[in-house]
Amino acid sequence: MIDVFTFNENIKKGILNNCYLFCGIDEQLMKDGINSIINKVLDKTFMDLNYVKFDGSTLESFEPVVNACETLPFMSDKKVVLVYRANFFQEDKNDNVFNRIYEYASNLPDYCILIFYDVFKSKRDKPGKKIYKLDKRACVVKADKIKGQQLEGKIKSFFEARGKQIGRIELKVFSTLMDENNLNIIENEVEKLCCYTYEKSITKEDIKELFLKSNDDDIFDLVNPISQKKVKEAIEVLNELIYRGEKIPYILNMIERQFNRLFRVKMLLENKKNKQDIMKELNIRSDYACDIIIGQSKKFTLKQLEHALQLCLDCEQKLKSSTVNGKTEIELLVINTITG
């Protein structure tokens, strides 16, 4: 059994196995690992023909997976078969499916990479006997939340990928302010810090000023992926806010407030107002904050911002009804502001 860092190093070295099982509580780490395999062995041109997925939570028989594995790849040396949320590795689940997997794992065709992932329900869950048994015939990757030096190493790699250096002390300060539950959000924060410091060195003061967070920063994190039309990332940020205990009506109020500010900025820009005019009109004190909101406003048309504000009003009306699911309504709002 190996950790995600050993796995990543193996992938970089071109060390690949025919069968993988990712297990743990961090589903995003598992997905990242699976994507690294896919990017290594599959041509995007023929991805749809050589990448087959099964929902493990609904799989009653393993034979459809075997059939997919036995089918030759199309215009490729490899194909990938994924069984996601494969809960039959848990001790109280179907032994027949597991036994078939264990038997087949050592007989996979050379051209096929078979991948499973099993998301544990809580931090208390540990790999059981089935997983340890499969570890003899497959590569088992433990995907847990990363902390301490491992987290710092991952964050440092995000800075290096952007050509930015960060000192050891500054890296430790930055890491302590991050929520290790979501690497996507951390990477977004790295991007923000790189933009903020631009060509100068990163200092502790920069980090504290930027990440001792205010409510506006939280909504920036949500509206930014909305402005970039990234549905998945926007929903992840929204879920993170809800997970941290923010109430749905409060989140809606902050989203509506931010879209209202973007609308006002857009109107000022179309009326040929400069940055100083915008800062005075909206009472924005920071040049950086003004640059951010101007950049976000340019990702929308006036019509789109008007539509987003109307969606906020509609959502507010729906939330006043006790019959609707608040989380679902706010998710639909985020999706509709991107796709509408």
From TrEMBL:
It catalyses: DNA(n) + a 2'-deoxyribonucleoside 5'-triphosphate = DNA(n+1) + diphosphate. Its EC number is 2.7.7.7. It is an enzyme of class 2 (transferase). It comes from the Bacteria. The keyword S-adenosyl-L-methionine does not apply. Keywords: DNA replication, DNA-directed DNA polymerase, Nucleotidyltransferase, Transferase. SUPFAM superfamilies: P-loop containing nucleoside triphosphate hydrolases (SSF52540), post-AAA+ oligomerization domain-like (SSF48019). One of its GO terms (molecular function) is DNA binding. Pfam families: DNA_pol3_delta, DNA_pol3_delta_C. Residues 217-336 form the DNA polymerase III delta subunit-like C-terminal domain. The keyword Ribosomal protein does not apply. Residues 20-143 form the DNA polymerase III delta N-terminal domain. GO terms for biological process: DNA-templated DNA replication. GO terms for cellular component: DNA polymerase III complex. PANTHER family: DNA POLYMERASE III SUBUNIT DELTA. Belongs to the DNA polymerase HolA subunit family. NCBIfam families: holA. This is DNA polymerase III subunit delta. It comes from Clostridium carboxidivorans P7. The lineage of its organism: Bacteria, Bacillati, Bacillota, Clostridia, Eubacteriales.
